[in-house]
Amino acid sequence: MAAPEHPACRLDDVVHQRVRLGILAVLGQADQADFTYLRRSLALTDGNLSRHLGVLEQSGYVEITKTFEGRKPRTWVRATREGRAALAAEVAALRELIGFYEEVT
Amino acid sequence: MAAPEHPACRLDDVVHQRVRLGILAVLGQADQADFTYLRRSLALTDGNLSRHLGVLEQSGYVEITKTFEGRKPRTWVRATREGRAALAAEVAALRELIGFYEEVT
After folding, report:
1. CA distance linking residue A23 with residue B6, whole number of Å
2. pLDDT at residue B29, rounded to an integer
């Protein structure tokens, strides 16, 4: 039985994982976001957000900058060019996967 | 900083995980598919497909039936009503997430 390559084969776990996809999607809408905003937007714990930001940073998909506003530390996160490209590829694969699905429903 | 609930919060790991999303998407297009077809369509190893089918079966999202054609065993997989509903919810969340993304690009 011949089978064409399915768009699911083009999904990359680094970007596709639920929390990381959420982070990149938020960063795709804003130039940068701070840690607290990401944590609240995605309803995450500090530890969970930190862990997934670490994976994205190690893959070169986000840059993390720590600043001080007065004495208050603030952590800023920005998607790199590679991160934006990875999100675009994920969205393209998802659009194709959803398109397949919608043809039959 | 107020933040609306992000659609990523509605993604469920059981369905969202890359391989399992692929399996449910294939089953969303066909009434049922056999093990070999799924394995080839999604470019998986036997072990990887078996493991993820097990997760979906335990969640009640697929039904697995073993038949014989002559002496050749054949394993059929079918999405349950719950599996189809879970895929529909995933697709709705993804569509919203992608929609957010497309507004700004």
Report:
1. 10
2. 86
At residue B84, the 3 state secondary structure works out as helix
User: Looking at the predicted complex, does its ipTM rise above 0.95?
Assistant: no
Residue whose C-alpha is closest to residue B97's, from A69, A27, A39? A27
Does B72 map to a domain? yes
- The reply to whether B30 falls in a domain is yes
| Containing structural domain, residue A39 | 8-99
A105, part of any domain: no
How many structural domains comprise chain B? Answer: 1
> Residue A25: its chain B contacts at CB < 8 A?
6, 8, 97, 100-101
Taking CA–CA distances from A34, the nearest residue in chain B reads: B1
Nearest-CB residue to A16 (from B4, B18, B25): B18
Shortest distance, CA A46 to any CA of chain B (angstroms): 15
Kindly give the parts of chain A with pLDDT less than 70: 1-4, 103-105
Mutate to test the interface with B, among A17, A52, A101, A104 (most CBs of B within 10 A): A101
Contact criterion met (CB < 8 Å) for A6 and B18:
no
Quote the CA–CA distance of B26 and B14 in Å, as a whole number. Answer: 16
Identify whether A22 is part of a domain. yes
Query: What CATH number should be reported for the domain holding residue B20?
Result: 1.10.10.10
In tens, the pLDDT along B74-95 reads: 999 999 999 999 999 999 999 9
Name the pTM for this structure. 0.90
Handedness of CA A67, B9, B29, A14 (dihedral sign): positive
